[in-house]
Amino acid sequence: MKHVKELLQSRIEEVDDPIQRVLLRDVLVDVFGELLKYSEERFSGLEEKLDGELCDPSERYYIYTGICRKDGLDETSRCLFRMQEGEKWEEGILGTLFLECDYPTIRQCLQRMYQAKVETDKGEYVTTVSLRYCSAYLETLERLYHQFLANQKQWHTINCPFLYKMLDIVNIGDVIPEDAAVQKIEIAFGELSGFVRNDLELIWNIQEDLYKTSVEVEAAGKTSVFAHRILLPDADAGYLAVPENEDGFTVIHLDGALSVRTEKEAYKKMKLERIARMTEGKDYTALLFPIQSNQRVMRHADRQALCQPCFLWTRGEIERFLSSYEVFEEFEFVDICENPSAEAERIDMNPFIKTHSFLQKKRKMAVILHAKDGADIFRYEKMFFLVSELQLCTEEYEWTGILK
After folding, report:
1. Rounded distance between C-alpha atoms, residue 211 and residue 271, angstroms
2. Among the four 61, 138, 177, 349, which has the fewest Cβ within 10 Å?
3. Between helices 315-323 and 379-393, what is the axis angle to 10°?
4. Residues 232, 258: contact at Cβ < 8 Å?
5. If you ran DSSP here, which 8-state letter would residue 71 be given?
6. Rounded CA gap, 205 and 277, in Å?
7. C-alpha distances in angstroms, 335 versus 382, 383, 385?
8. CA-to-CA dists, residue 342 to 190, 246, 348, angstroms
9. Do the Cβ atoms of 293 and 65 come closer than 8 Å?
C-alpha cells in the first residue's frame, strides 16, 4: 500500500488552505483509501483464481533425484526409493563407481585408459580398463522417457547431475575369464584416487508396483479392447501405466483413477510407476548432496505463456523461461549469443531423444550463465539440464550452454 499513501499525499499537497487539507485527508483516507484497498484485494483474489485454473500440468510429475550410500536409504520413506538399474546385457562391465569431480575432469577421464588389478573367484588379474557413463542408469532414464510418451504426458528433462558421475568400469583387456565373478577392483587413478566412491547409489521419488484392475471388454472400431480401470490410492502422486507385453496402449487420466486400454490381453494386476510428492520432514535418507528436481515455480506470466505459442525467443523471454526452474537460483543469467565456438563444453542430457525438423540447418545458439558457487562439482550438469529443457521448446534452434 506504499504507492497508495504516496498518491494520497500528492493530492493533499496540492491544497494550500490548512483546514481544507485536513478535511481532504480524512475524506481521501476514509473513502478512497478503503476503496483502493478493496479493489486491490478483489484483484488479488481474481489473480489467485486464474492461477488456480491455469495450474501447471506437470505438477504431479516432478522428479526428485539424490545420491546416498547403499546402506543410507530410509527404507520406510514414502518419498525416495532406489533407482532401479536397467538390465546389464553388455559384457565386459567390471563394476560401477562414483567420481566426485566436476564435468571437465570427468570428460578427461572418459578419454583415458587405466591399469587395474582385479580380484575374482578365479584369481587376480592385471588388465586395462576405461570409464563411461553408466549404461544401466541411462537405460532406466530412457525407459522412463518412453513411458511418459506412452502415457501422453509431456516429458521434462530430469535434473539428475549425479547420473553423470556414475561411471561403468569397462574391461579392455582379455585376460579375465568371462565367467569370473569380480570381488575387488583397484584402479590406478593417481591424484584422483581420493575422489572415487564405490558404495553409492542413485535414488528418486519413483516406485514401481502392481495395482488391481477391473476389466471390461469394449468395442473399438472393428476390434475389441480390454478397458482396465485402476483406482489410485495416492491423490497427490502422479502415475504412469506400464503394461507388459503391449506394444501400443491408450491411457486416460481420470480424477483419482486411470483407464488403460490394451489389445493383447486383460490384466488382473497392472504395473504402474508412482511418482511420489516430495514431503520434507518425512524422509530420513542420509543424502550426500542436496536433493535436485526439475520443479518449476509457475508464476502468473509463466502460466499465461503456456497457452501462447512463442515464435521469437528474445533474451528476456529466455531468462523468464529459465528462471521458472528452482535450480536457476544457483546461476546468474549473463547473455545469449549466436554461433558459439566449437570449444564450448557440451553434454547430451537426452541421448535417447530423437528430434526431427523441416529445417535443414539449425541456428546454433548458446546460453551464457555464471555459477554462483564456482566450486559446485555439479554446476555443468545443472546448466545443461536447463539447456535441455530450453531445447525441447525450440525446434528451430540448436542450444548449448557456456559457463563464465
Report:
1. 6
2. 177
3. 120
4. yes
5. T
6. 7
7. 17, 14, 17
8. 30, 43, 15
9. yes
Contact 194, 230 (CB under 8 A): no
Q: How many CB atoms lie within 10 A of CB 109?
A: 17
Per DSSP, the three-state class of 232 is: coil
pLDDT over 80 (residue 18): no
Q: How far from 401 is each of 101, 193, 291, 371, CA to CA, in Å?
A: 19, 29, 22, 12
Q: Is 358's pLDDT higher than 80?
A: no
The β-bridge partners of 274 are 207, 239
Q: Using alpha carbons, select from 170, 172, 164, 185 the residue that is nearest to residue 105.
A: 164
Number of residues written out for the chain: 404
Please state the pTM of the whole predicted model. Answer: 0.81
CB of 115 closer than 8 Å to CB of 126 = yes
Residue 164 contacts residue 97 (beta carbons within 8 Å):
no
Among the listed residues 131, 110, 148, the one whose alpha carbon sits nearest the alpha carbon of residue 353: 148
Mean pLDDT within 234-255: 87
Task: Determine the residue type at 197.
Answer: R
- Taking only the tens place, the pLDDT of each residue in 73-88 is 988 888 999 998 766 5
Please list, residue by residue across 282-310, b when 16 or more beta carbons sit within 10 angstroms of its beta carbon and e when fewer do: ebebebeeebbbbbbebeeebbebeeeee
Which amino acid is present at 55? C
Per the CB < 8 A criterion, the answer to whether 46 and 54 are in contact is no
The residues near 79 (Cβ < 8 Å, ≥ 6 apart) are: 64, 205, 276, 277, 278, 279, 282, 283
Helices (H), 111-235: 135-150
- Between the alpha carbon of residue 299 and those of residues 41, 130, 201, 320, 391, the distances in Å are 18, 46, 35, 10, 21
Q: What is the mean pLDDT of residues 224-246?
A: 89
Mean pLDDT over the full length of the chain:
84
**CA gap 27, 321 in Å, rounded:** 45
| Residue at 322: amino acid letter | L
What is the four-CA torsion angle of 53, 56, 59, 65, rounded to 10 degrees?
-160
> Using CA atoms, how far apart are residues 384 and 159, in angstroms rounded to an integer?
9
